[in-house]
Each structure stands twice: as C-alpha cells, then as structure tokens.
C-alpha cells in the first residue's frame, strides 16, 4: 500500500468517476485504475462497484475512507516536519494580514517571538479586495482578515478577534476652523480607499452615507491606506477609516472623530483545520490565550 494508491482511492471516492480523478491527479486513467486494483488486491475486498455507466462505493470502500484520509494526513504532517528541520530553523510561520489587525497581531507576535526566538515568521500584507484562501493551495498558516472575507468552508477554523469602529479622519486642527458634526462633515471633500482595495470598508462608508441621506463628494480613491492618510494630513480632504493603531505615528497630524457603533469592521483569524505546521500549532495557542485575556 503506497500513498499514490491512497490518493487515487480518495479522488475516485469523492468524484465517483475514474476519468475526473485521473484529470485531478494529472495522470492517465489507466494509472488510477491500476492503483485501485492493486489496493483492492492488497485489502482483499472490492472498494467500488464499477459499470460502464457509473461508479459506486461498496460498504468496504465507505468504511476505508476515514482511514485513508488519516494515512494521507499523517504523511503530509511528517513531510512538513522533515522539511522544516531540513530548512535549518526550528520552524517557519507564514501569516497573511490586513492592516486593521496590526494591534492584535503585534501583541501575539511579541509573545511568540520571546517564547520561540528561532522560529522564522513571514508576514504578508494583503489587499482587502483579494480572495486569498484557496483550500487546495494555501501558502499561509494564518489569515488575519475581515470577517466577511472568510471562506464558508469546513476545511477552516476561525476566531473573531476584534471589531474596529469607523471614524472620520480629519486634518490636524480641523475642529478649530470647522464644525465636526455629521451635517457639516458631509459637505467636505472625501478621499477614501477604493472599492477594489477594500470592498467591505467601501460598503460600510456607502451605507453610512445613505443612512444620513447624502452622497459623498469623493475627489480621489487610493489603493493603499498610507496615500489616504497623507492626503488628509495635507488638507486635501477628509476620510472614513478604521482606527488601526492607537500609537500609529501616521495619525499624529490628524483628528479622529468616531462614528456611531453601527459602522465597524469585524476582523478574525482563520487557519486550516489540518494545521500541518508544528509552529502554527504553537502560534495558535498564543492567539487563543491573548484573545481570552482581552
């Protein structure tokens, strides 16, 4: 019994079609058939009923599925652990994140870095408009994303970590010269993150404007938050953003006016249930402990 036989069996059991299973695995159909035949001979049972029209699992085939999955999962975990050791580090952690998760992520990484200084951490900032998670080819151990971006999949677990209230972002000393009530702010020029960059935020901004019966005068849209902040700091307009970091130096030259609690961005962390990476298991423990402490 070898892994290719197990992979072929699981593919056919899922698709109930030898041709499609062969296509999925990138091999000829004859290879899939040989794998199944060899596996049936080794087990001494028939795993599938096969006719010219269809393929069905036998009772023995259905029974074997969870054991085959365990075999494949154990092989994957073992391969990953060996690769980590071969890479010369005690481990490597790969994280995708949006900027609004910086505060939570920073605190978790502080604790993690002190406890496991020899584990390398890769961090990738990602666009809120990208669909990042691919169940079959996911390069990240953890995804810190907006809750509405998380996949509806049994392959992933998730934990809601925080909610960021939206705020009016104004130039420094704006309130000394202007009123900061909604009726006054609605007349200002707006500079916002583009819908392509952050559709969740864009939707919240438009919902807020509709609720308060005005159409914002949007003079510019950017694909990065720093450009928005720089423009507002220069007095080119105002914006609506989540408060990323209380001590972020980018906010030093800005005034922040909170919007009511109905307008906010929920953030969560998602990870694959299989959690092949040993370093990811260690980091998950820290995430859960930090979440329970706040």
From TrEMBL:
Cellular compartments per GO CC: protein-DNA complex
One Pfam family recorded for the sequence: LysR_substrate
Gene Ontology MF: a single term: DNA binding
Keywords: DNA-binding, Transcription, Transcription regulation
Cytoplasm keyword on record: no
Domain HTH lysR-type, chain residue ranges per copy: 1-58
PROSITE patterns: HTH_LYSR
Gene3D superfamilies: 3.40.190.290, Winged helix-like DNA-binding domain superfamily/Winged helix DNA-binding domain
Keyword field contains DNA-binding: yes
Family to which the UniProt record says this protein belongs: Belongs to the LysR transcriptional regulatory family.
Protein name: LysR family transcriptional regulator
Native organism: Lentihominibacter hominis
């Amino acid at each position: 019994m070898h892994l290719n036989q197990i992979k072929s069996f699981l593919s056919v059991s899922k698709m109930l079609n030898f041709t499609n299973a062969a296509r999925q695995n990138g091999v000829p159909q004859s290879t899939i058939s040989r794998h199944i035949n060899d596996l049936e001979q080794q087990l001494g049972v028939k795993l599938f009923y096969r006719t010219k029209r269809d393929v069905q699992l036998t009772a023995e085939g259905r029974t074997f599925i969870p054991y085959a999955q365990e075999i494949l999962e154990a092989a994957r975990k073992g391969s990953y652990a060996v690769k980590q050791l071969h890479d010369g580090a005690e481990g490597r952690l790969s994280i995708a994140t949006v900027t609004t998760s910086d505060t939570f992520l920073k605190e978790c990484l502080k604790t993690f870095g002190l406890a496991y200084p020899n584990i390398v951490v890769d961090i990738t900032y990602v666009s809120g408009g990208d669909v990042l998670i691919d169940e079959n080819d996911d390069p990240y151990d953890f995804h810190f994303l907006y809750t509405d971006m998380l996949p509806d999949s049994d392959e992933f677990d998730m934990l809601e970590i925080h909610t960021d209230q939206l705020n009016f972002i104004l130039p420094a000393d704006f309130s000394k010269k202007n009123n900061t009530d909604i009726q006054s702010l609605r007349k200002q020029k707006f500079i916002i993150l583009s819908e392509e960059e952050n559709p969740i935020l864009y939707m919240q901004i438009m919902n807020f404007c509709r609720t308060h019966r005005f159409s914002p005068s949007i003079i510019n849209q950017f694909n990065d938050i720093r450009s928005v902040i720089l423009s507002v700091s220069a007095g080119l307009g105002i914006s609506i953003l989540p408060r990323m970091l209380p001590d972020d130096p980018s906010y030093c030259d800005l005034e922040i006016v909170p919007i009511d609690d109905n307008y906010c961005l929920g953030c969560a962390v998602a990870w694959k249930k299989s959690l092949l990476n040993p370093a990811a298991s260690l980091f998950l423990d820290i995430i859960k402990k930090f979440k329970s402490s706040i």
